[in-house]
Amino acid sequence: MEAKTYYNDDADLKYLSDKTVAIIGYGSQGHAHALNLKESGVDVVVGLRKGSSSREEAQNEGLEVLSTAEAAKKGDIVMVLIPDQFQAEVYKNEIQPHLSDGNVLAFAHGFNIHFGQIEPPSNVDIFMVAPKSPGHLVRRVYTKGSGVPCLIAIEQDYTGTAKNTALAYAKGLGGTRAGVLETTFEEETETDLFGEQAVLCGGVSELVKQGFEVLTEAGYQPEIAYFECLHELKLIVDLMYEGGIEGMYYSVSDTAEYGGLTRGPRIIDEVTKKRMEAILSEVQDSTFADEWIEENKNGIPKLKALRSDLDNHKIEKVGKQLRSMMNWLEEDKTAEAAE
Ligand code: NAD
Ligand code: MG
Ligand code: MG
Ligand code: MG
Ligand code: MG
Ligand code: MG
C-alpha cells in the first residue's frame, strides 16, 4: 500500500483566505509555520505565554503576538506547537475555552490526540500537518523557493472541509512543493515513537556507546574510538540519506562493504528484531505513553538520572574535547537542531 501524495495543484490557499491562523509556541516548528504562512499571504497571530523570551523575536519579524488565550480566541485555526508534554495543560486552560463551532484544532504530532490527553469537542475539525524535518529546515528551504515533505492526517472532519484546509495549510508551509503524504494520527504517532526509540535515538546511540566501550576496554585510545564509532557516523548517515543503504555501500570501500554486509547481521539479528517488536507493542498498547505521562507528572526524575549517567560516560567527556577542536561544528549545530 502506497501513501496518497498531494502536490501544489491539489491544494488551494483559498481555504485559508478568510481565516486567522493562531500559532501557539514560537520554537523550532512555531517560528517556521508562522513565517512561512505569513509569507504565503495567510493572516497569522502568535500565541505565547507571559514572559516568553520569544516575544521580541516574533515581533521583530512583524508578527502579531498575543497571549495563548487571546490567540486561541482570535484564531479560526489553532496550531499547537509547544512541546508535547505541556500541550494537554495549556489546551485545557487556554485553548479549549476559546474554540468555537467550526474552528480547527491542528497539531504537528499526534501524541496528545492519539493517547487521549487532549479531548476536543465534536464541533471542531482536528488535523495534523507534520513537516518531516526540524523547523529550521522548514523555514530555510521555504525561503529558497522549495519545501520539505509533510504528513497530513484528518482526525475529525466537522466542517466537511478539514482536508482542504489541511492541504492549504501544508501549501502555505511550502510542503506541497515537495509532496504531502496522507497518514492517520495513529500511524504517525506510533511510527514516530517506534522510530526514535528503536532506531534513530535509542538504537543508534546504544550501538555507538557499546562500540566505543568495546574498543576502549580492549585498550584502544578513547579519542580514536570516538572517531571510529561516533564522529564518522555522520558521513555514513549522510550517504544513506542521499542514496539509501545501497548508495552508502557504493561509496565506502569494498572492504567496508564486505565487512559490513557479513558482520552487521551478527550484531543486529533476529533476537534484536524480536526486542524491536516488543518495543513496538509497548508503543501500540500505550505502555510507553502511560509511563512517559507519569514520569512528567513526577517531575521527570528518571529522565534526569539518565541524563546525568550519560553526561558521566567517557564517550561524552572525550567527545567534548574533540569537538572543541572542530570549530566549524558550531555553525552546523544551529542550522540543524534535531527533533
Ligand atoms: P520547541 O521545544 O522547539 O518549542 C516550543 C515552544 O513552545 C517554545 O519555544 C516556547 O515558545 C513554547 N513553550 C514552551 N513551554 C511552554 C509552555 N509550558 N506553555 C506555553 N508555551 C510554551 O517545540 P517543537 O520542537 O517546535 O515542537 C512543537 C511540536 O511540533 C510538537 O508537537 C512536536 O512533536 C512537533 N514536531 C517537531 C519537530 C521538530 O523537528 N522539532 C518536527 C515535527 C513535529
Ligand atoms: Mg519523528
Ligand atoms: Mg518524535
Ligand atoms: Mg574508519
Ligand atoms: Mg575504514
Ligand atoms: Mg494502535
TrEMBL record:
Q: Name one Pfam family in it.
A: KARI_C
Keywords, sorted A to Z: Amino-acid biosynthesis, Branched-chain amino acid biosynthesis, Hydrolase, Magnesium, Metal-binding, NADP, Oxidoreductase
Where does the chain bind Mg(2+) 2?
Answer: D192, E228, E232
Location of the KARI C-terminal knotted domain: 184-329
Its annotated pathway?
A: Amino-acid biosynthesis; L-isoleucine biosynthesis; L-isoleucine from 2-oxobutanoate: step 2/4; Amino-acid biosynthesis; L-valine biosynthesis; L-valine from pyruvate: step 2/4
| InterPro entries associated with the record | 6-PGluconate_DH-like_C_sf, KARI, KARI_C, KARI_N, KARI_prok, NAD(P)-bd_dom_sf
Per UniProt, where does Mg(2+) 1 bind?
Answer: D192, E196
Cited Gene3D superfamilies = 6.10.240.10, NAD(P)-binding Rossmann-like Domain
Q: Which PROSITE patterns match?
A: KARI_C (PS51851), KARI_N (PS51850)
Is Amino-acid biosynthesis among the key words of this record?
A: yes
Sample GO molecular function, one term: hydrolase activity
- Residues crossing the lipid bilayer are none
Q: Which NCBIfam families match?
A: ilvC (TIGR00465), PRK05479.1 (NF004017), PRK13403.1 (NF009940)
Describe the task this protein carries out: Involved in the biosynthesis of branched-chain amino acids (BCAA). Catalyzes an alkyl-migration followed by a ketol-acid reduction of (S)-2-acetolactate (S2AL) to yield (R)-2,3-dihydroxy-isovalerate. In the isomerase reaction, S2AL is rearranged via a Mg-dependent methyl migration to produce 3-hydroxy-3-methyl-2-ketobutyrate (HMKB). In the reductase reaction, this 2-ketoacid undergoes a metal-dependent reduction by NADPH to yield (R)-2,3-dihydroxy-isovalerate.
Protein name from the UniProt record: Ketol-acid reductoisomerase (NADP(+))
**Taxonomic placement:** Bacteria, Pseudomonadati, Balneolota, Balneolia, Balneolales
The gene from which this protein is expressed is: ilvC
